[in-house]
Amino acid sequence: MPTTAPAFADATASDSALRRFLFGLPGVDAVGLEARAASLGTRSIKTTAKAYAIDLAISMIDLTTLEGADTPGKVRALAAKAVNPDPTDRTTPRTAAVCVYPDMASTAAAAVAGSGVKVASVATAFPAGRAALDVKLADVRDAVAAGADEIDMVIDRGAFLSGRFLKVYEEILAVKAECGPARLKVIFETGELSTYDNIRRASWIGMLAGADFIKTSTGKVATNATPANTLLMLEAVRDFRAATGVQIGVKPAGGIRTTKDAVKFLVLVNETAGEDWLDPHWFRFGASSLLNDLLMQRQKLSTGRYSGPDYVTVD
Amino acid sequence: MSDNNRLGVFKTYKLYVGGKFPRSESGRVYEVTTKTSAAGTAGKGQWLANAPQSSRKDARDAVVAARKAFGGWSGATAYNRGQVLYRVAEMLEGRKEQFVREVAASEGLSKSKAAAAVDAAIDRWVWYAGWTDKIGQIAGGANPVAGPFFNLSTPEPTGVVAVLAPQKSSFLGLVSVIAPVIATGNTAVVIASADAPLPALSLGEVLATSDVPGGVVNILSGVTAEIAAPLAAHQDVNAIDLTGADAELAKELEIAAADNLKRVLRPQPVDTDGASDSEDWLASPGTHRLTAFLETKTVWHPTGALGAAGSSY
Questions:
Q1: B234/A305 Cβ within 8 A
Q2: Catalytic (active site) residue A152
Q3: Quick one: CATH architecture of A18-311?
Q4: Exactly one of A156, A215, A264, A293 is catalytic; which is it?
Q5: Proportion of chain A above pLDDT 70, given as a percent
Q6: DSSP label of A25
Q7: Quick check: B234 contacting A, CB < 8 Å?
Q8: Rounded to whole angstroms, how far apart are CA atoms A295 and A262?
Q9: Residue B245 falls inside a structural domain
Q10: What domain range is B143 assigned to?
Q11: Does B236 contact A305 at a Cβ distance shorter than 8 Å?
């Protein structure tokens, strides 16, 4: 997808046109949205359905380490876990990707080579995104050259919140052009966008600019992925495909720690976007500790005994 | 209810898990009645209260809470743990009347016998509080070795302990099995007596108001076998005390516990008629319940210059 989908060609013609388009989107019923997300969270998923959900969730994880203290050794250990999450049970699916900082992308790429696990690298001055465009683009180039299959960029929240929507849009376009074959995930940092209306607008900017994925958050602020904001973004990708025929992925990230949470998100996906999105190509979890909980639940299902943290890796 | 014009306020007994008082995840309750001899009638006793009937998921949640609390509790100084346990005894003293009432109704004891049992329980709690900073000297020490080394053994808490409280002695027996487990720094998931859980559930309220961190003791009521089975098989439980299990259940649980090499305390039955617990709770307890849930860590350290200088170390 080169630039804007034809159906919305004139929406991005100018700053004022884009503003008109974004403010023309229907307002979000916040109470209704949260109630819908909460009611979908009460579904009971048991036995074979649970086993399916656990394996699907594992295969959707972008196993993430984004710390100042990351070392090549830690990244290699993470990659080994992504390729083979539970060494005691070879039927465990591998995760979708490992997600690291750009300078660790080459280490990660070497470690997962040939396994089918993708390397995702954050870029564009993650997590703040406060850098000149040239610097951001160089960051992306660097990550792609190091072997990243996927680029997680952050939008310029400062520009977004001050109403310069076209700047946000053009920056995503520029980053997308720099990605080459790599898939682009656009992070909105929903916790900093203040309102659900803003999340809906940001989603549309991202989709119009050619994002392959829209992603909730960096995991570095107080409020990360919630069922409500993920539901809203799932509605956006559903509506976008209905209008343009183009399918876009969704990635909630940060704060999803338990199997129960993950299954709730999968229910949201199935009930909102539909079965087409129940695939690691179209839906991801940005998480690290979630994997251990999924593995413990998986062990519980296969052995009938509750497992414990002694039976999964520390990180 | 001496005043006939007043409506009694019935208490909703709840579980004690992670410092909170949840109902059972399953939503179930069961009827707790007085012991028949106290009611003075044949068959079922008089209704006392509804107690939550825990499910295996309550047990799972309790283990998670106990594991979370383990780091802080085992890392606290022994002196501090002793102070906290003494505080529990202080709180028990203040609520003595309530416990006497509950024990009398649950066990079918006269008021004076129940009061004696509660007094003994509070004294036992104080006794174990004193052991927190002394058990190290008894169970550990410097070992004589044939070489230039200091060789020191120290006992450390084993981790999360599942405790099946005695079925008959609803309070003195209960205290006698909980206190030694937590005195040494373990955390506990306790299954209260199935027929007489009320004193145990009330003990949760005491623990919540006496500086014991949430999760150190978790109290579940319900059908013993139903809750005990997942705990015995649980991979994140380090030890199990089978005091409240009958011979058949104890065997089953011991087999399940072998899977992750849990420490198992299985008291030998001395009374098999089912009329009383296998242990005499009024007797002096000794230290075997303290040492049952400890791991010994031994450290070798070269004596170095001391050894070279011909010291007698």
A1: yes
A2: yes
A3: Alpha-Beta Barrel (3.20)
A4: A215
A5: 98
A6: S
A7: yes
A8: 12
A9: yes
A10: 48-302
A11: no
DSSP single-letter state for residue B258: G
Q: Mean pLDDT throughout B93-111?
A: 95
Interface of A with B (CB under 8 A): 299, 304-311
Sign of CA dihedral A302, A303, A304, A306: negative
Residue B191 and residue B184: Cα distance in Å, rounded? 20
Is residue B263 within 8 angstroms of chain A, CB to CB? Answer: no
Q: What is the pLDDT of residues B244-278, one digit of tens each?
A: 999 999 999 999 999 999 999 998 764 445 566 77
Q: What total number of domains does chain B contain? A: 1
Q: Which residues of A touch B233 (CB under 8 A)?
A: 304-306
Does B34 fall in a domain?
A: no
ipTM, interface predicted TM-score of the complex? 0.83
Size of interface A-B (CB pairs under 8 A): 28
In this structure, is residue B90 part of a structural domain? yes
Residues in Cβ contact with A53 at an 8 Å cutoff, skipping those fewer than 6 apart: A45, A262, A263, A266
Domain residue ranges of chain A, discontinuous segments joined by +: 18-311
| Active-site option among A62, A152, A261, A293 | A152
The reply to whether A215 belongs to the active site is: yes
Residue B84 belongs to a domain with what CATH number? Answer: 3.40.605.10
Give A39-71 pLDDT, tens digit per residue.
Answer: 999 999 999 999 999 999 999 999 999 999 999
Mean pLDDT, chain A, as a whole number? 94
Report yes or no on B235 lying in a domain.
yes
Q: Are B188 and B131 in contact (CB under 8 A)?
A: no
What's this model's pTM, rounded to 2 decimal places?
A: 0.89
